[in-house]
Protein 1
Amino acid sequence: MKRKIVASILGVGVAWSVAVAEGTATDNYTVTATVQPYCEILSLSDVTLEYNPYKPPVTSKSAAFSFKCVKGTNFTISATSANGRYLVKADDPDEKIAYSLGVLIQYSSSSAYSPDVFTTPLSATAETKEPPVAALRFTNISSGQNVSIGTYTDTVTLTITY
């Protein structure tokens, strides 16, 4: 009697496994990836310079910075000044040095320049996902400003909008 039950159970198992192997079902689906515009600033250092109102103007005092954007991203670089585009003397806020901030971006086949990103943002399109070949900030101070000796500072916020 025990042998008949085992044989019956084995027979059902074999029949079931054969039924599964007899058919298949397939379908297709699409994989989609959307690449969004994106930029990030990689490095941005402070700028220190000497100014003498009797000497020629400080022009094109350059400082590099680094950023990258996804290839094809249209971006704009602008800046704001905490002191309204003035370097302000630490111990006398009435003493100010006016200045501008130019920016140059250079890729292998194109470049963009703004003489003053405080007033005229720079616009460009990323040619590659790598940082531009050159990204420079230029601090420009005109000569002849009536200022006293001391240390003058401003805090600049550089913004990349994409």
Protein 2
Amino acid sequence: MFAVLLVISAAATFVVSAVLDTLVVRLRQRRRRRPVSTGRTATAPRESRRPLLHH
């Protein structure tokens, strides 16, 4: 019985690890593909930016 639980937990750990690794790789690739420019100019005054709203 213990051996069965050990194999199941090892398999579950492997699957979860693989899924998380895949998600991290995809997120990193998306960040690289995004353009660096945010559409704002470097000389824009700070007051013209919209304040961040926290809910």
Protein 3
Amino acid sequence: MVCEESEIVLAKQRAVHLKNCVKNLFEVSFNLAQQEHTLKMKRFDLNERAARALFMVSVSNNGYLPLSNVYENLSIDEMALNTADIEFCRQIKQQSLYCSFVAYHIYKTQYRGPNVANGEEYKDRLKLQITRRLLNLLVDNANVLHDYNKIDNFQQAEIYLKANPNIVNNSLLDFSTVLVFILYMEREFQLMHNAAFQCVTLRAILNDINTLKISARESIENFFIKVVNDKDYRRNFLLQLDMLVLSVKSVEKLYRN
């Protein structure tokens, strides 16, 4: 009985830990999604006020109102909104592709609503930035992405990465992480697990490159030696893999709770 109670407590602690990890991991994405929604609502509000002002001009008793007075506040608000828009786009560019991708997914699922108001269409900034970056990445790395994302085990990964150490970079990690989300949304769960495997592998190798100040070839060699011979290291790798998959599946639900 005592054993069962301790296991329940441990399970609850792990659940809380996972929830906190997911929230921390995607906090920036949720903030970006909220900023996109705020900008959209402010843009719609500005357009509505401009349309109302134009109507008041058309129906005024003397046929007109001084435009400088009618639109003075609108002009000030539009300048402030344009400045906020530029700053938001700058923030998106500074974030990783997967961070922006998650933000856009959250934005579309949590902030549903039309993108047209008063005849004006709001063009999602997140979507535009993601599309541009994905196209650039695909054009520059089409063959690498096609070959690498077929890998689903340590043996294949070791052979491919040792033969192509030059592909180990943050761009490939970024794309692999985005692919995890895409495949999850398309309900391609086996392919999603494969992409998650590749993502965690790259993350571990890049981490050693940065912390140990070694070459990609040396880091690849170290990684596969440790993951084969060190049980704790392998266990931690599999834990990171599970955490990534669970975070992708749980991101919206955990944040709302």
